[in-house]
Automatic annotation (TrEMBL):
Signal peptide: none
The protein's name: CASTOR ACT domain-containing protein
Lineage: Eukaryota, Metazoa, Chordata, Tunicata, Appendicularia
Domain of life the protein comes from: Eukaryota
InterPro entries according to UniProt: ACT-like_dom_sf, CASTOR_ACT_dom
CASTOR ACT domain span: 29-84
Alphabetical list of PANTHER family matching this protein: BLR5128 PROTEIN (PTHR39199:SF1)
Coiled-coil parts of chain: none
Length: 94
């Protein structure tokens, strides 16, 4: 994924690809895909998930697709982060 912003261009890609091309990188993370079709008009869905991650002191970057939302979580916090989903009834793919 590529996001062109005024300050710079952000590229989301696998870490091994970044390293292989000698690219500078920050925020090595793991991807959690929420396997629930969330409406583009839904209000508060990601807010609730963000609140639960905040309670566990877990930072998160969210990318919303048309059918699913995707969370980028720091590698070391992945197991802790996925623990919130069974309690919420949300199925995930890691």
């Amino acid at each position: 994924m590529i996001f062109k912003e005024q300050e710079a261009t952000t590229v989301i890609l696998p870490l091994d690809v970044a390293k292989a091309h000698g690219l500078e990188y920050t925020f090595p993370s793991k991807l959690i895909t929420l396997n629930i079709h969330s409406s583009l008009e839904a209000v508060g869905f990601i807010t609730e998930i963000s609140r639960k991650l905040t309670d566990l002191n877990i930072p998160c970057n969210v990318v919303a697709g048309y059918y699913h939302d995707h969370l980028f979580i720091p590698e070391a916090m992945l197991e802790k982060a996925i623990s919130i989903f069974p309690k919420s009834g949300i199925k995930t793919t890691v």
